[in-house]
Structure formats: structure tokens, C-alpha cells
Amino acid sequence: MKHGLRVLLLVALGCTGALGQKPRPCSTCLDWYKAQTPFRIFGNTYYVGTRGLSSVLITSSKGHVLIDGGMKESAGLIARQIELLGFHVRDVKVIVNSHVHYDHAGGIADLQRRSGARVVASEWSAAVLKHGGVAKDDPQYGTLPPIAAVKSVSTFRNGEPLAVGDLTLTPHITAGHTPGGTSWTWRSCEGEVCHDMVFADSLNPISSPRFRFSANNQYPQAIADFEKSFAFLETVPCDYLITAHPELSGILVHWKLRLNGVKPDPMLDPGACRALAGSFREKLRQRLAEEGQP
Ligand SMILES: [Zn+2]
Questions:
Q1: Upstream peptide bond of 264 is cis (omega within 30 degrees of 0)
Q2: Average predicted confidence (pLDDT) for the chain
Q3: How far is CA 270 from CA 8, 91, 208, 219, in A?
Q4: How much distance in Å is there from the Cα of 99 to the middle of ligand 1?
Q5: How many A from CA of 287 to the centre of ligand 1?
Q6: 227 C-alpha to center of ligand 1: Å?
Q7: What is the pLDDT of residues 89-99, one digit of tens each?
Q8: pLDDT tens string 216-253
Q9: What is the reported pLDDT for 4?
Q10: How many angstroms separate the alpha carbon of residue 263 from the centre of ligand 1?
Q11: pLDDT beneath 50, residues of the chain
């Protein structure tokens, strides 16, 4: 991706206030509810999210995996996007998540009812999903709408692949934005050509007004977690990047370029994860400076 475009795309994000500010609406949040034509990203990987929140369907002959459920109001839309592609919601066998905020996990309870899928999450995220609401040690506790409780949730072990048919999907805890945030990796192929796919969680250091990343009792290891997560993004094999908020990878811009015949595939960018890590590092640096840290 061109440097200028990448910078522009990485500037967007963050719908709650920065340090000391009240939560404020963001300019892209209307897109969170808007329908987006579903499309194939590569191989068995499809974009089925809305215009402002990513959801990804990964298919296999023995059932599919869905990553992220969007807002609670979007569950029906995501289900329709899956059917529009010619797949069936009832064939979704596993639902996983980036992090348990209302904009990525709000629709999971409803999508589980529609599909009968197993919901699998990190231990921390699973506890939130089971009870609904917002966890007390979440940096944004007190400013976020609650999520609906999910009936049955199982947990994964960090780095241990989940299998659905011939598809294996690996969870990587990338905490910081929340203590249980997770990124996902898998391989997708078209004929002999295979690529490394990454669904990267948000690593945006935003919080409720009184929370300090540099000093708090709620989530004291937040900065260490961010550092581990940045290191993951800097080293993970990453041909296609999908971010929980699509504007961060520019996937919908790339989709339009692709429709216009741009070649090589604008979505294929092996430097994308590293660039994303750099932009999140910079956000954390700015945030710690605001908190008075050197
Ligand atoms: Zn979030």
C-alpha cells in the first residue's frame, strides 16, 4: 500500500474519548450499521461485516468459522451477508471474537442462536461473554454499552489451533485494548497458491476518563500486554490483513480498487501487519505522553 494512503487509513479509529474526555460520537460510527456487499477476500475467506465493522467467514466443507459478530442490531445483516454468498448460517460451527466490546461482540448471542455454533474465546473474554455487560478491569469500563450474555462459551488455549473440517484457525492473545483481546491466523488457498491470513484485534489505547494506562489497579499489566501484542504483529506472517475496524487495513478501499481492475491484488500486502503495529505503537506513545510519562 502507498505510504500516504496507509497513514490516512491508520489515523481513523477511536469512538470514545481520549484521556480526560467524555465519550464522543465518531464520524465513522454510522457505517457500523450499514450494509456492505459481502465479498471473497482470498480463497475460503470472505468479508461478511458491515461497512464499519469487520466480520469474516472462513469456510470448509465440514462447516464454517465466523470471526466477530458486530453490533447486536447487525446480527441479521451478517446472517444475510453469509446467505448472499451462497453459504448457510446454520453451517457456521464456530464463532470467535477479537474483543468483547459491543461493536464486535454485540451480535454474537443472536448469531449463536441463528447458527447453533460453538462460541470459543480467551478465558478473560469468555467470562465477559457468559455474563454479558462490561468487565470491571476493562480500560473502558463505565463508558461502554453492555453486551448481551452468550448462552454457552468454551475457551481456547493461546496458540492452540481450533479445527473445523480441514480448516485450522490459531488464536493469539493480543491484549492491551482489553485484557482478553485476540487476533486470529489461518491459511487460505486458491489452487496451489496459499497465503497467510490475519484477523488483527484493535490495539488502541483508549479508556474511560479516569483510567491511566501508566498507573492503575484495574489492569496493571496493560502496557506490558500492548508490547507483547505489538511484537506479535511485527513478526506474524501476514499476507492478507483484516482489522476489526476495516478502515485500519483499508480493506474496503482495496475492494473497490480491485473491482476497478487494479492489479496486483491491492489487499495483498505482506507489510500490513508491521505497519499496523507501528501505528498502534505511536498511539500508545502519544497516550503515555498525555499521561505525563516520558
Ligand atoms: Zn473496543
A1: yes
A2: 92
A3: 19, 31, 34, 33
A4: 6
A5: 16
A6: 18
A7: 999 999 999 99
A8: 999 999 999 999 999 999 999 999 999 999 999 999 99
A9: 39
A10: 33
A11: 1-24
CA dist., res. 268 & res. 190, Å (int) = 14
Tell how far the Cα of 176 is from the centroid of ligand 1, in angstroms: 10
- Cα of 87 vs centre of ligand 1, distance in Å, is 28
Burial label, 38 (beta-carbon count in 10 A; 0-12, 13-18, 19+): buried
The amino acid at 125 = S
- CA-closest candidate to residue 121, choices 157, 166, 169: 157
**Ion ligand 1: residues, CB < 5 A:** 101
Provide the pLDDT for residue 212. 96
Distance between CA atoms of 281 and 226, rounded to whole angstroms? Answer: 8
Question: Given this model, what pLDDT does residue 294 score?
Answer: 66
Query: 200 and 244 in contact (C-beta within 8 Å)?
Result: yes
Q: How do strand 118-121 and strand 56-58 relate by DSSP bridges?
A: unpaired
Q: What is the reported pLDDT for 144?
A: 94
**Cα gap 48→115, rounded to integer Å:** 15
**pTM, to two decimals:** 0.91
The Cα–Cα gap between 107 and 81 comes to: 14
Measured in degrees and rounded to the nearest 5, phi and psi for residue 122 equal: -65, 160
CA of 203 to the centre of ligand 1 (A): 9
Q: What are phi and psi of 142, to 5 degrees?
A: 100, -15
CA 146 to ligand 1 centroid distance, Å: 12
- C-beta neighbour count of 28 within 10 angstroms: 17
